[in-house]
Design brief:
Layout: H1 2-33, H2 38-41, H3 56-64, H4 67-97, H5 104-113, H6 119-133, H7 140-143, H8 151-162, H9 166-174, H10 179-190, H11 192-208, H12 211-216, H13 225-230, E1 233-234, E2 237-238, H14 240-271
Antiparallel strand pairs: 1-2
């Protein structure tokens, strides 16, 4: 039995190592290409270990576009999305999970059904609305929608809230707490893993968003990092070394953020499935 368990453990570790290599390979290719000369990028056979290392791709790439301006714009949009998602999604999820009222399951079904609508369906109507509001070429179309909730994030928070014992909320009601007090003093302190997961999803979505800034932003001084990366490619060619170098710099914050928050993130994801 012990030998069988050991063999199973070894096989599991080997399988995990194979999958890890498969997932790590694209990032290594991105990192190695960022240190190649232009002649080495498309060389056959591929150059896996570039020599000499062209570190100037990083300095040239960060000065080719106003990188730090784009970084500031991206952070403003990301912070706005995180704040909007935490406020709106947690309040809606609280109403669907904690407050008993007739028809809440049907409303929850309607909210989930919006996930079947692709962004392309609402893209033109939203652009028309934002044009009439005078929000085009501002950050508002990229931030304000986050304050109206996200179906997937509402689903995550609702499932987590439903795993919290009802005795806690009922005891708070008996003590005379209003719903907003229960939400603030009981539910939120117990929901830190789920809230952190929502914040991470929202931040990553805004950080990687390309289509939204492409539609609503015209002034290059308001571009985000995703639009800045597109400036390394043109009809006359692409600066692959600099593009991969800046792409590496843009990717690293997400990897570092997940590395330091992975325990909370995984805990928040797993806890959402405890109760249907």
């Amino acid at each position: 039995m012990i030998q069988q368990n050991r063999a199973t453990r070894i096989a599991t570790y080997c399988l995990l190592c194979i999958f890890s290599v498969a997932f790590f390979l694209p990032f290594y290719w991105l990192l190695s290409t960022s240190l190649k000369t232009e002649s080495q990028v498309f060389r056959i056979p591929p150059v896996w270990f570039p020599h000499p290392l062209k570190w100037s791709n990083y300095t040239d790439g960060l000065t080719f576009v106003p990188f730090f301006t784009y970084l500031r714009n991206t952070l403003v949009i990301c912070v706005g999305n995180v704040v909007g998602a935490l406020l709106s999604c947690s309040l809606v999820a609280y109403g669907l999970a904690i407050i008993p009222w007739k028809g809440r399951d049907f409303v929850f079904f309607l909210i989930l059904s919006t996930m079947m609508l692709p962004y392309q369906v609402v893209m033109v109507p939203l652009f028309t609305v934002f044009t009439k509001l005078g929000w085009i070429d501002t950050f508002l179309p990229l931030i304000v929608p986050a304050f109206f909730g996200n179906a997937f994030l509402i689903f995550l928070l609702r499932q987590f809230f439903m795993s919290i014992p009802k005795d806690l909320t009922e005891a708070a009601r008996i003590d005379g707490c209003a719903e907003i007090q229960i939400y603030r003093r009981v539910i939120l302190p117990l929901s830190k893993p789920a809230m952190a997961t929502v914040a991470l999803f929202s931040f990553m979505g805004a950080w990687n968003d390309y289509l939204g800034p492409l539609i609503y932003l015209f002034d290059q001084g308001k571009y985000t990092l995703s639009l800045g990366l597109a400036m390394f490619s043109s009809q006359y060619g692409s600066y692959w070394g600099m593009l991969m170098a800046v792409s590496t710099v843009v990717t690293l914050p997400i990897i570092i953020l997940f590395f330091f928050t992975q325990r909370t993130f995984i805990q928040g994801i797993t806890m959402t499935g405890l109760k249907a």
